[in-house]
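User: Predict the complex with methionine sulfoxide.
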Amino acid sequence: MVHADASNFSSSLSKAEAYAQLLSSLTSLVQDQRNWVANTANAASLLWHMYHSLPAPSSSVNWSGFYVLDPSDPGKQLILGPFMGKVACQTIRIGKGVCGAAAEGEGRTVLVKDVEEFPGHIACDSDSRSEIVVPLRSSGKVVGVIDIDCADVQGFDQEDQKGLEAIAELLGKSCDW
Ligand code: SME
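Assistant: Here is the predicted structure with methionine sulfoxide placed in the model:
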C-alpha cells in the first residue's frame, strides 16, 4: 500500500464511513511501528484530511493534534505533540483548559459545543469555536489526549466522539508511550 494514499478521503463518504476509513488506514500504518511520535503525526494528518473532505461543520476544523504527558513534569502537565493547524500552546497543566480536564484522573471525553461556555477554555487559536478532547490510555493510564478544534460552534457530535474514541483506543495500545 502507498501510505500517502491513506490521506485521500472521497467527498462522497458519510462521516461514519470516513471515520471507518481512517481507522482502517491507521491500523495498517501502526502495524509495524510503535513509536508514538510517528503514529500520532500520521494520525494528525489523517484527521485533518478526513475533516476537510466532509461538509461543514467538519470542514471547518482548524486544529487536529495531540498533547501528551510531559516527561519533565510527570502527572502534572501536558506537552504539545504532533498536530496540523496553527502554532499552539506548548504546555497545559492537568486540570486546566479542555485538554487538562480530559486528561485529569482516569480521563474522560470532553465535548465543548461552544468554547465561550467552557470556563477556563484555553484559546490557542482565536478562530476556535468548538472543541472535542479524547483521552489516550495505555494500560489503563492516561498518556495524552487527542484535541480537535472547529471554527464553527457545535462542530462535533456523538458520531465524532465515537470515531475519536476508537482512534484513541487504537493509538493507546499500539504505541510505546
Ligand atoms: N483549547 C485547548 C488548548 C489547546 S488548543 O485548542 C490547540 C484547551 O482549552 O485545553
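The CA atoms of residues 52 and 59 lie 4 Å apart.
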